Amino acid sequence: MRWFDYLAxxxxxxxxxxxxxxxxxxxxxxxxxxxxxxxRPAPQQFAEPNNERSGAAETETRPARPPxxxxxxxxxxxxxxxxxxxGNPSTGSAFPILADGTWLTARHVAQNCRQIRLRLGEYVxxxxxxxxxxxxxxxxxxxxxxxxxxxxxxxxxxxxxAYHIGFPRGRPxxxxxGFLGEMTMRHKGRHNYHERxxxxxxxxxxxxxxxxxxxxxGGAVLTPEGRILGVVQAESRRRGRxxxxxxxxxxxxxxxxxxxxxESGAPGTPIAPEKFGETGFALIDNYRIAKVLCGV
Length: 296
Hints:
Blueprint: H1 3-22, E1 75-83, E2 90-98, E3 102-105, H2 107-110, E4 115-120, E5 123-126, E6 129-132, E7 139-142, E8 161-166, E9 173-189, E10 193-206, E11 220-222, E12 228-236, E13 241-244, H3 247-256, H4 276-285, E14 290-295
Parallel strand pairs: 1-9
Antiparallel strand pairs: 2-3, 2-14, 3-7, 4-5, 4-14, 6-7, 8-9, 8-11, 9-10, 10-13, 11-12, 12-13
């Protein structure tokens, strides 16, 4: 055998050995795949299905609803009222809060009176007892007459509009106003105390007159639904402002006087803006608003 025959035989042996070791057709095995990061399973795989038949509910956590924001009345600062005792007879206003003859008025209307009477049309009622709030311009008057009281308002925040009914300058009158905010009223004089009050901007008067609202003190502050919101206390004539008690003063004077106020929300006499004057006068004619006669 010649030498090139030995070379050919060696080449055949080497090729056969290579094919056997590769386990294939002689091609190289594929390279390993590059590293893949694990994929996040689809969210719905973890969500419990909403099964109406089984009553299952959604497992998604819903954000809690924020609490409703309470109305914040604008604060208008500090005001001062000087309580001066003239020593002369005076008049004011009052309205019934209970059917047994219990009335509300302003404290300064009743505090310096030796004798108090209420005039209802042609009738005059004698006030047998008065209870004064020690720290607010509000008071209770007791009579023996059967009267029709006003219902109380259900709202803790004032309406945009209110109606003030009483006897300004000793004559029947009604004032429509718009809510402005709250202020701290300092009552300066014989009795010094501070009180938080509502402030209203005067809009219309019925009938029309000029000058002071004196005598309207103690009158009813009514919502458009005809419910009591407070008591008229003072005025700022130059700015056309009316100050009235806040609803919590009614609860306080009721506790002081040991009376139980009726539940709020009972039907009242609605007051239409275009007929506020006629409605107010009708309430006066029906003995729902009285003139206070303060005798000294």
